[in-house]
Design goal:
The protein is α+β, with helices and mostly antiparallel strands. Helix content is 34%, strand content 19%. The C terminus is likely disordered.
Length: 121
């Protein structure tokens, strides 16, 4: 089984925080910094202020799944997601919308290619 592409080193987090671009909404804050690699890596920061370990790990699992399912991003980026208190009570869809909104504001979403069949409707 392939390993999940995640940011592990503290230096990589610090580089993204200090030199990366940030955007935020009520649920999440997202930092983006080029990593010089072929693929993207995800880093999740979820403090104890958010809730107990069950809540924090549940949010981390949801964010990893959102990252895994939404591959239409520009490549070669470290994406650091800082979870905010409002996420603790949010469902999966709300967190996914917040994540995709921030990716769109970062201009890292790639346009989905269509074959033109739906262009008529």
């Amino acid at each position: 089984m392939k390993r999940f592409p995640s940011v592990k080193k503290s230096a990589d987090y610090q580089r993204a925080y200090q030199r990366g671009k940030s955007r935020a909404n009520a649920c999440l804050a997202v930092y983006v910094f080029p990593n010089g690699m072929e693929g993207n890596r995800l880093g999740i920061s979820c403090s104890k202020k958010i809730g107990n370990s069950v809540v924090r790990h549940s949010l981390a699992r949801k964010l990893r799944e959102i990252f895994r399912r939404n591959k239409n991003l520009k490549q070669g980026l470290d994406i650091i997601v800082v979870v905010r208190k409002a996420s603790a009570s949010a469902d999966y869809r709300k967190i996914e919308r917040a994540y995709l909104e921030l990716c769109s504001r970062h201009h890292i979403l790639e346009e989905e290619e269509t074959d033109g069949a739906m262009a008529e409707f």
